[in-house]
Amino acid sequence: MNINSERLWNRIHKLSEIGKDENGGVTRLSFTETERKAKDLVVTFMKDAGLAVREDEIGNLIGRKEGAIFNSQVVMTGSHIDSVISGGNFDGPAGVLSAIEALQTMNEKGIVTESPLEVIVFTDEEGARFSTGMLGSLSAAGKLSKEELYSAKDKNGVTIAEAMKQAGLDPELAPNAKRNPEEIKAYVELHIEQGKVLENADASVGIVTGIVGVDWYRVTLKGEAGHAGTTPMGLRKDPLAAAARIISYGEEMARNEKSAVVTVGQIEVKPGGINIIPGEVAFSFDIRDINKENMNDIFEKLKAYIETTCEERGIELEIEQLHSLDPSPCSERIMKKMEESFTETEVQSIKLISGAGHDAMVMASITDMGMIFIRSKDGISHNPKEWSDQKDLAMGAEVLFTTLVKLAS
Amino acid sequence: MNINSERLWNRIHKLSEIGKDENGGVTRLSFTETERKAKDLVVTFMKDAGLAVREDEIGNLIGRKEGAIFNSQVVMTGSHIDSVISGGNFDGPAGVLSAIEALQTMNEKGIVTESPLEVIVFTDEEGARFSTGMLGSLSAAGKLSKEELYSAKDKNGVTIAEAMKQAGLDPELAPNAKRNPEEIKAYVELHIEQGKVLENADASVGIVTGIVGVDWYRVTLKGEAGHAGTTPMGLRKDPLAAAARIISYGEEMARNEKSAVVTVGQIEVKPGGINIIPGEVAFSFDIRDINKENMNDIFEKLKAYIETTCEERGIELEIEQLHSLDPSPCSERIMKKMEESFTETEVQSIKLISGAGHDAMVMASITDMGMIFIRSKDGISHNPKEWSDQKDLAMGAEVLFTTLVKLAS
Fold this sequence. Notes:
- Two copies of one chain form a homodimer.
- Chain A has about 400 residues and is an alpha+beta fold.
- Chain A has two domains: about 290 residues, Zn peptidases (Aminopeptidase), CATH 3.40.630; about 110 residues, Alpha-Beta Plaits (2-Layer Sandwich), CATH 3.30.70.
- Helices cover about 35% and strands about 20% of the residues of chain A.
- Chain A contains twelve helices and 16 strands.
- In chain A, strands 1, 2, 3, 4, 5, 6, 14, 15 and 16 form a nine-stranded mixed β-sheet that branches.
- In chain A, strand 1 and strand 2 form a beta hairpin.
- In chain A, helix 8 packs antiparallel against helix 9 and helix 10 crosses helix 12.
- The relative contact order of chain A is 0.18.
- The interface between A and B is large, with 58 and 58 residues.
């Protein structure tokens, strides 16, 4: 193994001390003093690694190792160090610290690549403070509007712009964080899986084939509220009974899918009395797949079923799309380099898709993108119990190291 | 027609003025000044009807017409005049004012019955203030514990006992409101249907065959919360997906029943994120029927299905019974008198069950009980839109008048 597993593991633990709460989790929200301390610590790691450090206009931290060929496209790698409230110690830091470890290993081994390499720590991936994530990668991709900095607020009413100023950043200059896509050769991110696919396959590390698209819908069914005792079954227009059939249909359909998932995470009934037939029910559908056509196909089938069910039952229907994000396939070229790296490091290669969004998804809009997943214990994340083993992290970092060397050569 | 339809209709409207709100509904909570005003108005009606008026220790208002035979058992009739918050003008008052009208008609026509007759206005049937209804009838039946007067509180923290004192009643004396069952011959109540059975049968008035029993259950299913994107369908333990099947099963089963109804009026999921597979879901079941064995049978089938579904899906299960009330069949003797009255008044006789609880249900525990339902427009109640036509109310009062004369003779 080329990389230094102990050093990487120690850095994970040092970073975990910043924003630590009593239950062992961390809370590092964007543009706070806690985040500043975490960034300062990461700067010391970057400097130890021999990288040239700068911070861009949105607060992304960048550590650069120059390449041999002047003006060559840069190979970028990174993740984030902000967290959700009471989050874990690996979601984000695993990618950032593996990236630093990979570049430090190159420097220590005197590996000079043709292309320069950059470790990037993206600002506010989680969106835990302003309910609007991926601030750093969206800025780098030139996809964050300045208006959003002035409109999105945290729970105390502080806008992103105000928070940036408090952190010493000028929101007016934020657009300057945009990177020229022509100057970027590739973006590679290591991340914890946040699921159980690797665990169930008994694999330490996996190659991500793509990040799923996400469509969110809100279905509202309006029936007729009534007294639970005085309305015979045959005279009811019960929207919850209709919703139950629809939810079952959605689950059954998704169970027959290869990679698509369908989730109902929210449901509310009105008026909500134990002895009152509901008059209205609203619930959500979260549809994800790596294939956009299939997502549309699932939604159309679901919609047809909802319409038939509601028509049969005399129920009014409204379906609203709340959010839509296309799938981001990973670069074939990068996956191939990763497979070679797996072969060279004698690690079994497992392929899987990412069901969660990452900065890599945003970067895929401006450059070739690849992702490496490491095993998550019990699939838990966004929780103090989030855990990945030292060995798995080291194997991931080793594959990252080898892949980056190949990509930069 | 014997009774005076105009007078009855005018009294409905006069009573509707007390506690009236801007949307045409009424709010008359127990032991309030509004309720006092409504009682005072009803007292004037009782006195107009030639009744001897008293108020008992729980606040029940009683108007009595003496019978010809000394110490004969009393025939009671009545309902309530308290309302839910923003309730309608017929739920309760229809029964009270029809009862007064029936006795006034007897007095005007010089009808002397063997048994005395009493109109009773029961205190706090709805339970809208203290979440514990039927205070008056429970007291009359000797089934209200004094402890409850000191424990149940309204939303301002005022106990029933405190509210009684404010209304000039002594909670310590409340047990004295108990009636001796041996002194009561029958209890008959006219009430709005609060459903659509009469409307669908195009009938003005119906004979109630019994009041359904009510069993309330709370089902809690614990699965495994997870990320909607990173947990493949096959690795999920989604309690909402299980709940959807269970709710559908319950509805389907009830649709094949003759008179039983099964309702899910409440459902809550945790944690409730649009992109999170629920970890826990809790929902209610309201099971009603006129036949207790059938209610138990429905519950057992439901329970078996819940258990199988949860076992198949690796979901933990808890079922809690929140409330149980046995069905109250109406007296055959009283129903027969009502049928005769229908024939005499040339009104078509429709039989139906009461899916809602009434003071009559409590009175059934101490005496023979009968109920007359009048048609509710669109089945609406507990709402300002609650409505019954003058003609339907008059026909109901006429049947009540005839039935009471028969019962008291």
